[in-house]
Amino acid sequence: MKPINVGLLGIGTVGGGAYTVLRRNQEEIGRRAGCAITIKMVADKDLDKVRSIVGERAIVTADAYDVVDNREIDIVVELIGGTNIARELVLKAIANGKHVVTANKALLAQHGNEIFEAAQKHNVMVAFEGAVGGGIPIIKSLREGLTANRIEWIAGIINGTSNFILSEMRDRGASFGDVLKEAQVRGYAEADPTFDVEGVDAAHKLTIMAAIGFGIPMQFRSAYIEGISKLTREDIRYAEELGYRIKMLGIAKRTPQGIELRVHPTLIPEKRLIANVEGVMNAILVKGDAVGQTMYYGAGAGAEPTASAVVADLVDVARMLTADPEHRVPHLAFQPGQLDNTPILPMSEVETSYYLRMRVDDKPGVLADITRILADLGISIGAMVQKEPHEGEQQVDIIMLTHLTVEKHINGALAKIEALPVVAGKVTRIRLEELN
User: Fold this and answer.
1) Are residues 358 and 399 in the same domain?
2) Contacts 24+ apart (CB under 8 A), 409-414
């Protein structure tokens, strides 16, 4: 088989890692692919940086369109990020009959339907293992390894920055703001950390996994997204006292009413393996009807972990170049004409359990008023703790864990509880998942 020529768009952290891994393991990769895979062109605006990495071993250009329009390039690897120029380049590469490898989760979550439709039309492949979970092979597992299963739910820690912050807040009793600054110093968080700490990055990844797991189109705009910036060390400590840990989870779940697609802080029983995933590591649980629960754990970001997934995609594409397009693994695991139109549930219709913390006056009858409101809306309490007031204080914290209930009932209850004159400020509400 003739050598495969690759055009690399962007040689930043992941692009540089992909180039390094492919060059270092070239012989091993060639044996697995059945042919040599060579990076023939590299496009990046920083030409000096590119030349310092690749030397004379590849054609260097500042114009990415030189790569996607070059007839000798078989596979375009898009690692420039963003959703505007990246979309144009990917669609142009596809229109030119080139296969595409990308690690761009935002691009796929927002424009994946258009990209996969174009790829189907032009009989080319789009591979994207690096878009979710860094070096964890979760996309391949969902697309191929679990195809015998009806996927029931997916739950994952899929953003290392937020997981690092929550781990440090729990271990050190530090505030969110203090740990965020440390994460930025260490390079785990960007100068503008919004996408990470407010759950947008995790929602991009969850959208992709849900599409593959349930055979539905990408529906990022229907995802419910809530970040961790309002979490306090008190809630992390109280959760720990009750036998739970707080993690930011991406959850996709199949229900009779529709599909849940949500990212938010979540209490998880401390005995669950995923509750003990710390630092910048990622972990994803997938529940299939035949296999039961499976867990995938590893580095969710970084130069070489993500490069591992990108190069694996290159090998997969190389192996499939001679295959009949009709018999390739579909981009979203299900045949293009067989995608489901099951609706995404609005958050108000999601059923789960809740952690509630409220600051109340320390006087008789307060608890009775609160429990009456909950009972009137059919919300039962699974556990409750009332903290002792500090010396000189007239208010106390009450913490409750509810049994399963629908979110709109909790919303109604909280509005009534917060209206009580004995309740100070807003009630803190964090969702709780047993994951059993």
Assistant:
1) yes
2) 409/377, 409/378, 409/379, 410/354, 410/379, 411/348, 412/377, 413/373, 413/374, 413/377, 413/379, 414/356
Residues 89, 162 within the same domain: no
Q: Which pTM was predicted?
A: 0.95
From 40, 205, 247, 287, the catalytic residue: 205
What is the Cα Rg of the chain in Å?
24
CATH code for the domain of 215: 3.30.360.10
DSSP string, 386-398: EPPPPTT--EEEE
Residues 231 and 211 reside in one and the same domain: yes
Q: What is the mean pLDDT of the chain?
A: 94
Is 346 a member of any domain? no
Domain assignment of residue 38, yes or no: yes
Known active-site residue 49: no
Residues spanned by the domain of 385: 351-432
Question: pLDDT digit string (tens) for 301-314?
Answer: 888 999 999 999 99
Residue 284 structure tokens:
């994803």
**Rounded distance between C-alpha atoms, residue 138 and residue 80, angstroms:** 22
